[in-house]
UniProtKB/TrEMBL annotation:
Organism: Jatrophihabitans cynanchi
Biased composition (Basic and acidic residues): 97-106
Chain intervals for the UniProt region annotation (Disordered): 1-25, 81-106
Protein name in the entry: Transposase
């Protein structure tokens, strides 16, 4: 039984049209590029040798950013001076986590100090309120805190 509803244009080439047509889009998930040491050395040398106006052309041709080349130059210079290549800082695991006893103890002490300050402020405000009521009763005026 055929339907009288006209088909939508381009409906047959929809990615979810059927199981046979469910091809994986290769550009759907990006991937991190990695560069060999020879490639980095070649690009850095070419970048440094290029005249001022053509440095950007090298970057465009290779699909790189200036920050890539700058980091590579810093690493090359560090290796040339005998120091180890700078590494990216990694997240510390183990100590320093959520349940670190030293961190929890320090936070508990800080919160206890804040609580003591808050309690002292509330106590002083209560005494001030009592003093103001005493002063207002002695002068014969009504307190602003009492409801009328």
């Amino acid at each position: 039984m055929s339907s009288n509803i006209p088909a939508l244009p381009g409906g047959a080439d929809h990615p979810a049209a059927g199981p046979a047509e469910a091809a994986v889009d290769p550009a759907a998930r990006p991937f991190r590029r990695s560069f060999t040491a020879e490639y980095r050395a070649r690009v850095v040398a070419e970048y440094e040798a290029a005249p001022h106006g053509l440095k950007a052309a090298v970057l465009r041709r290779e699909g790189l950013y200036q920050s890539h080349v700058q980091k590579w130059m810093v690493a090359r210079d560090a290796l040339a001076s005998g120091a180890s290549a700078p590494r990216r800082a990694h997240r510390v695991t183990g100590s320093g986590g959520k349940d670190d006893p030293g961190r929890l103890r320090a936070e508990n002490q800080r919160l206890a100090r804040e609580l003591a300050k808050s309690q002292a402020v509330v106590e002083i405000m209560g005494k001030l309120q009592g003093l103001l009521e005493t002063v207002s009763e002695s002068t014969g005026t009504t307190s602003s805190s009492r409801r009328r």
